[in-house]
Amino acid sequence: MKRILGCAAIVLFLGATPLLAQSIGDNEYEKGKTLYKNKCQFCHGMRGDGKGPAAQSLLMHPEDFTTPEFWQDDIEKKITVEQKIENTIKKGKEMMPAFNLESDEIKAIILHMSNTFKKKSQSNNLGRDEK
Amino acid sequence: MIGEKPRKVFFLLIIFFLLIVFALLQILPLNTAQAVPSFQRQTGISCNQCHTVFPELTPFGRIFKLGGYVMSKTGKSYEFPPPVAGMVQASYTNARGLTSGVAPFDYNNRETDGLNLPQQLSLFYGGRIYDKIGAFIQGTYDGATNKIFLDMTDIRYANNTMVWGKNLIYGFTLNNSPSVQDVWNTTPAWRFPFASSSVAPTPAAGAIIDGALDQQVGGIGAYAFWNNLIYLGVAVYRSADEGIALPLSAGTFTEQIVDGTAPYWRLALEHRWKNHFFTIGTYGMQTDIFPSGNSSGPSDRFTDIAFDAQYQYMGTIEPEDIPGVDDAHKAKAGKYMITAHATWIRENQDWKASFPLGNTANRSDLLTTFRMNLNYYYRSPLGDIGGSTSYFSTTGEADSLLYASNPVDGSRTGIPDNDGFILEASYLPWEKTKISIQYTIYNKFNGASSNYDGFGRNASDNNTLYVVIWQMF
User: Fold this and answer.
1) Each residue of A53-66: pLDDT tens digit?
2) Which of A33, A59, A102 to mutate against chain B (most B CBs within 10 Å)?
3) Which of A56, B153, B179, B312 has its CA 20 to 30 A from that of A73?
4) What is the CATH architecture of B32-472?
């Protein structure tokens, strides 16, 4: 009986772990989505294409996250694209101000951007290759 | 009773104290992006991003305002410390008939004293209140009248979405002055000149929408800006002399009591071509106002229809163009800027209550106002330099009872006409400090060029030299 209960506990634990991980990931994604909407979307747009409501008023065009070029690591500076985004959020770039966000908030934004716009950039890239 | 000599020493001490405060404001680390003014502190971007030269807005400044003043660099839903800022204006006015004392200290003549220390002292709540609700609330002490009152106030909720594949910013506003919610500097609340003397004589005639209801009404409105192209705003106003709107007129005596509600509308089209921004628009209001001294019974009707246009050029530069400036955001905000504004307002005045009472000579009158100005700004390594020129005119029908003869502010002919020019030069040694010299030239004042008031005063006697130091902190 004890063995059966032990096995059942192991099975439940193993089964729940991915679900738990997915739930945490979902929460992180939703948090990132909300933060993106509140902090980034006004300039970079809902679609991440750099065409937010404020884009037209800026003298420099906001970054377009839907291009494959944006998602390339910075080889010269030897940093990954995620580090590049984090640095930009923390320090600002050109017309973009520095944001005073917590590390977990920045990670959540990057997760949202990666899941939403990186995929779009890959499909954009496929479209280019097909042409 | 203070003697003449001690009084001079007292004023010199005050000037010395103001200069010390002024110097400290520049030395202390308040001038960084982490300090006040509150919008700058909240967003982390420099003043230059939103203003060509304050308070005139850049295209981005307009969007920031439409967005509800809530753009913030933090991840929280509120701002701590609260977004509070301040402003002080000290001015000197030279026009015929002004007294030589210093307002507000000269108790007997403060409303005619040429030296105003301060002219205005304001405290702002400027920024996010919570989440998508933000505000621009100004409380002011006026040196000439020695009064504290709630000045320009605009509290709004704003959001944005996509409609037909294009961006839509929309929101709601609660404010206390028609057109204070507008984002183009052509409409009355935020028009040129952005600062003017509070003691110099001004023409008698003016349209109701042209500032007559400022801080005397409470209004709610909604607006939408679609695809950075079409802006539509509507609002309704009612007198803030009683009821829940009363706080919106705090400290201001309600001279114009509105009968019922007054609808206000605004439509504008904006187009960008490279760094050129063009806007044309219309705005207006229909207001029923009780005759002076009445708060019930029949009322007069004022129908204001206005057209306006704005052109703005934002010349860019590279950060390296300004030696020693490490703030790329500031440098990229524009180096050469030109802004041109034009406004035409036609007011139909139906004196259906005042005429039977014998307050006006005509059953109805027309009043037409036209203004245009051209501003040029240059961001030099030593500070921002600007120059403005403006033409203004008001024409209307003669009404000997409405515009009666009176020394200085009256009209011998009963004609409300006036026209003239304003020349202004500005220098901003720092982002938040503005020094302006302004000269107003009247060709015609209250209907005539010479002896306009019937007491021998000429229009040119009202030509005004005005020097103002304007410090934000």
Assistant:
1) 999 999 888 999 99
2) A59
3) A56
4) Beta Barrel (2.40)
